[in-house]
Every structure is written in structure tokens, then in C-alpha cells.
Write a sequence for this structure.
């Protein structure tokens, strides 16, 4: 989440100057220790989230009543992006686990309302995704 936040902060209005997620990940791991398995998974998660953010942002926006993606705090937006990527692309992570982890990250890193906000958006997205599956 911290790397995604850093990428979001460094993203300028010029898309040509978009930050490189791999460089950000390498910089992060120069300063922190973790097992190689954790580093590998986090790289997949971070690069996947960052490289799919337009699609992810559209999904978040469709479930965030009265909130545009640009109005959200960068912390909440980073957490939501990562959780949505997990819901869409990480079948080994149960959806409820991804949602609960996102809520806890919101409580830890966000404002006093972040946990509830993240919960509301992800619950709406979860219902939307599974209603779509049920209707197929």
C-alpha cells in the first residue's frame, strides 16, 4: 500500500511522466526486509494494481456513491485499488479476506472514517461482482 501511495503521489498530470512501479518496488525493498516469497507476491500485486488502475478506478467509481476517484484521499484510493486488484485477479485470496485486510489498512493508515468508507465501497463492489456471476 505504501508503494502504491508513493506512486500515486508522484504521478503528475502528464501521463508520459508516469512513475515506474518496478523502480518504486526496488527502492522500497532496499529499505525494508522480507522473505523472497513476500517480495515476489508484493511485486505481482503492486505492478498488477498499478498497471490496471484505469479499469480498477472505473470499478471503484461505479461503487463509490457521491465520490469521484479524484476526490478520495490518496491513502484510501491506494488501499481500494489494491483490494479491487485482489478481488479480480488473486483467486487464492478469499474475497472476504481481501476486504477485511483493506478495512484494517484503512483504519491503520487512513483517517478515522477510512475503514467505514473502504468497507462501503468494497461491499458494494463485492455485491456487484457476485450478482454478475449469479446472473451468468
Amino acid at each position: 500500500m505504501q508503494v502504491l501511495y508513493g506512486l500515486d503521489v508522484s504521478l503528475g498530470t502528464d501521463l508520459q511522466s508516469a512513475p515506474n512501479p518496478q523502480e518504486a518496488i526496488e527502492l522500497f525493498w532496499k529499505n525494508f526486509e522480507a522473505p523472497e516469497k513476500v517480495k515476489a507476491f508484493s511485486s505481482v500485486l503492486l505492478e498488477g494494481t498499478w498497471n490496471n488502475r484505469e479499469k480498477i478506478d472505473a470499478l471503484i467509481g461505479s461503487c463509490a456513491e457521491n465520490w469521484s476517484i479524484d476526490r478520495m484521499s490518496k491513502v484510501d484510493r491506494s488501499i481500494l485499488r489494491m483490494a479491487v486488484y485482489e478481488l479480480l485477479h488473486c483467486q487464492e485470496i478469499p474475497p472476504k479476506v481481501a476486504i477485511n485486510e483493506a478495512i484494517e489498512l484503512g483504519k491503520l493508515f487512513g483517517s478515522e472514517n477510512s475503514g467505514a468508507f473502504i468497507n462501503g465501497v468494497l461491499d458494494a463492489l463485492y455485491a456487484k461482482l457476485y450478482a454478475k456471476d449469479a446472473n451468468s
Observations:
- Helices lie at 2-10, 21-31, 36-51, 53-63, 74-89, 95-109, 114-135.
